Amino acid sequence: MALCAKKRPPEEERRARANDREYNEKFQYASNCIKTSKYNILTFLPVNLFEQFQEVANTYFLFLLILQLIPQISSLSWFTTIVPLVLVLTITAVKDATDDYFRHKSDNQVNNRQSQVLINGILQQEQWMNVCVGDIIKLENNQFVAADLLLLSSSEPHGLCYIETAELDGETNMKVRQAIPVTSELGDISKLAKFDGEVICEPPNNKLDKFSGTLYWKENKFPLSNQNMLLRGCVLRNTEWCFGLVIFAGPDTKLMQNSGRTKFKRTSIDRLMNTLVLWIFGFLVCMGVILAIGNAIWEHEVGARFQVYLPWDEAVDSAFFSGFLSFWSYIIILNTVVPISLYVSVEVIRLGHSYFINWDKKMFCMKKRTPAEARTTTLNEELGQVEYIFSDKTGTLTQNIMVFNKCSINGHSYGDVFDVLGHKAELGERPEPVDFSFNPLADKKFLFWDPSLLEAVKMGDPHTHEFFRLLSLCHTVMSEEKNEGELYYKAQSPDEGALVTAARNFGFVFRSRTPKTITVHEMGTAITYQLLAILDFNNIRKRMSVIVRNPEGKIRLYCKGADTILLDRLHHSTQELLNTTTDHLNEYAGEGLRTLVLAYKDLDEEYYEEWAERRLQASLAQDSREDRLAGIYEEVESNMMLLGATAIEDKLQQGVPETIALLTLANIKIWVLTGDKQETAVNIGYSCKMLTDDMTEVFIVTGHTVLEARIPIPHCCPGRPLKAREKMMDSSRTVGNGFTYQEKLSSSKLTSVLEAVAGEYALVINGHSLAHALEADMELEFLETACACKAVICCRVTPLQKAQVVELVKKYKKAVTLAIGDGANDVSMIKTAHIGVGISGQEGIQAVLASDYSFSQFKFLQRLLLVHGRWSYLRMCKFLCYFFYKNFAFTMVHFWFGFFCGFSAQTVYDQYFITLYNIVYTSLPVLAMGVFDQDVPEQRSMEYPKLYEPGQLNLLFNKREFFICIAQGIYTSVLMFFIPYGVFAEATRDDGTQLADYQSFAVTVATSLVIVVSVQIGLDTGYWTAINHFFIWGSLAVYFAILFAMHSNGLFDMFPNQFRFVGNAQNTLAQPTVWLTIVLTTVVCIMPVVAFRFLRLHLKPDLSDTVRYTQLVRKKQKAQHRCMRRVGRTGSRRSGYAFSHQEGFGELIMSGKNMRLSSLALSSFTTRSSSSWIESLRRKKSDSASSPSGGADKPLKG
């Protein structure tokens, strides 16, 4: 990303003085002009060409073009290379120019926005690009913030203002910012014009949630934090006006600092192609050397005798030098084994696949009006090769819509409903929900089922009142009241919103806040608390506290946070209550609920004053401010009194168990990486069907030391630890997701996943143990253990640990990884994995912005992988196999011809045919196959997940398949040359003259080639569309049209030096012998392919063949069923098959055991060899004639 400002040395600190441009200019800070475009009119051509020739392929073809310009070595005209090269460069340049034009347009639109800047005591309209560091800007409601500003004052009391940060972090809820008290009174322009405060702060960085600085004014120091900053990209809301001091401008703003490029990802096919292209280039050099040696020998032995008739060129003085020149000539002629159109075609196909994902209506969420989006076009085929999925839990597997479900107050658990016999009532058996009609401010959408909690509130139970008082005070929620009594809460997290709403319904209504007060209606009485301090939540503290003074003057600290953190900070007198509450927490977590612990602490006035002073000094520190504040917070948040705990339900998303079951059948291993506590994660694992009761073992690793983490199994399974670990290790060495473990590490021969036996183990590990497991001396042991398990759940993990787990699997397993998440804490994991998927959920769009693909629900992942991913992989593999085949068949003819033309580098084909072969005659049919082909319909791809496995094993395009394609191409080229050569040696025309002339031979070979490769792609195409038909037959028609046009009188009259052979094509193709030769060549080239495929289908069909066969049987059986109904059957009874199949599939999805059995039964269907599929088809037809709804469909069951 280029930027307007020149590159400057890194800053150590930022100094900005208000209303003093002369002082600030000496630091040479960046202006507020941004430039994300790369080119201008003058630099576009040279810079773009320089970038394009960074690609090895483009440089290679430029080198060939230079060789072709040397007349001594070139037997081809320069345009045979320059036409496709210029076409590719032009297409890429147009794309780059278009992208850059829109970047220019966006830059100009942003840079030319108007802003009110205070200059010389007067507010003046200035363009954003002219705003400088140290300027004071006035913002009005609904305006974008022009730069990173220090908020000075606003129209709201106490210098408050409200902003929306959607462009920064994707969160649409409003956030509050506040000016420091000393500047909040500077609302008058005359006062602001005299303001000369100086800010010293941290240098520019990309941390959106942190800012550390100090304001020096009137010989005083005032600490500055992120709460005082308005960042560029935010929008001012519900605030009439505000003034701000520019601290960071343009490229130094946090928005621009965060706009770095995502790491470029390449697919395994890309990497393989690079290797193969190098091999092909080596093969090309070998052919050139062979033909050059042949030329030197021929010139020495034979050519020397014909010097009178065929003299050497002036520069050639020996047979050796002639061979040297011949080498370069053949490098030019044979370069079409790797045509430049290959790279263009690959990008076009990937673009088509991306559009299919974007257009898929079945991945469109109607509720959120959100389509699936392919945010990259380079990874589509890798979606068909995924072996490991790393998933977040909250918001990804669950809905992230929180509901207050249960709570524990003073040792009493509320939330369960019991019947008259004392048994816990299930949801369907529960009575009416609690009636909150006594509270006019209650949220009518809130439901709670246990009336005893409301009774405790109404009876005035002090513990219950204190519990809900804490929930109504300890938060950062913003309240908005559009009409009297209609409260709308804007919460930064769904958890916080659910807790404040619960307090609201039980009579403790958070009504409003100012920077220094919180107003709560407690059982109908308005009470205003003085807000003394907020000790905010972060990922390290995992708790939040507020310190308030009630109307009686009593100071109290209220705290809520994670149980693992808060329970260690309680007063020892609460031990008995702690034991009871811990039991309740374990019970809630076992039900999959998210828990928080609540506590309080009374503070005396003297201690608070002393503590507040130390907090102020820590906040003014220039270095280690965060650590000092953390220590101050740690001190006051100790020896607290336990109040109770809350339990919030985060329901599973629709279709999650079915999706996980289906992906498991596709041999994809799913690891859940979550920050939630262990019990909650395990319960969600059971709900998702990742963990099942019929598993052999579920190993739980909760160690805090290296020793406990190293030998987890004996700690978890007393009685049979060694046996369990032995079984796991044996499983690990035998099967590692379809590969043996050693094979994965040493790249030796692969084992079919169809033969793999899935382990019945699961591993649950917490963050402490994981930290040890990821150390260098233990990571392989951990990986071996985890990969032997069918399911892995890592709980209490940090965002960094998520990325480390993904990196570990990438490092040691030859497997494609996919990470999926919905929050900012998933971004590192998403960027680390081969493929990153973002869920556009409740936590903003940070994950989406960092992802390669995005959609709104986890269940769409099965369609992304099993349909789009599998098809993309299949299409790309078939495209590459065919592309290499057709180009070797085309190019190798020159090699054979060299032995019959004195190794003179004479071409077989006309030079125009060489130019047009790859960009006109054969480009569109293979593109159509690469974009539209499919082996089985989408329903069958979802119904038979085992079809996904060839991509995981990389079976469809690998080095072996490549050599098979090359061998077929060489075989075709041999027949393509020697059959016409043999025929032409003795053949005559209708008038008795000799048929064998160079031009007639060239037309015959070229026509045979185009027909053979067209028939071959017809055989390779598994799914015919109108576009396939049009492109294949249209390409043939275009070939003949161009052929006859080039040999016509019209072109000869216009370009007599270029098109000399008038009427050659017409005369040649008028001969029956020529057509017989073409037909013979086509049949001999194609028949072995047809025979091989027939025998393979007959003797060893793969799973897709089996599915197509069963589909054919189904269609025939249904057709016969319809005929029989029309002829002899009356009544309205439905087909028993259709009904039982749907019911069976639903049961299959919901039952893990049935799914495994069905899957293995289906896979074994492919290994039968006792009878042919034709005999089976005949048998099925006879069976269906006697029983129309019977046995034909049995293999489809499950």
From TrEMBL:
GO terms for cellular component: plasma membrane; trans-Golgi network. GO terms for molecular function: ATP binding; ATP hydrolysis activity; magnesium ion binding; phosphatidylcholine flippase activity. Its main location: membrane. Residues 848-1101 form the P-type ATPase C-terminal domain. Gene3D superfamilies: Calcium-transporting ATPase, cytoplasmic domain N (3.40.1110.10), Calcium-transporting ATPase, cytoplasmic transduction domain A (2.70.150.10), HAD superfamily/HAD-like (3.40.50.1000). The active site is at residue 392. InterPro entries: ATPase_P-typ_cyto_dom_N, ATPase_P-typ_P_site, ATPase_P-typ_TM_dom_sf, ATPase_P-typ_transduc_dom_A_sf, HAD-like_sf, HAD_sf, P-type_ATPase_IV, P-type_ATPase_N. Residues 1184-1198 have a biased composition (Low complexity). Mg(2+) binds at residues 392, 394, 822, 826. It is a multi-pass membrane protein. It catalyses: ATP + H2O + phospholipidSide 1 = ADP + phosphate + phospholipidSide 2. The keyword Phosphoprotein does not apply. Residues 17-82 form the P-type ATPase N-terminal domain. Its cofactor is Mg(2+). Belongs to the cation transport ATPase (P-type) (TC 3.A.3) family. Type IV subfamily. PANTHER family: PHOSPHOLIPID-TRANSPORTING ATPASE ID, PROBABLE PHOSPHOLIPID-TRANSPORTING ATPASE. This is Phospholipid-transporting ATPase. The lineage of its organism: Eukaryota, Metazoa, Chordata, Craniata, Vertebrata.
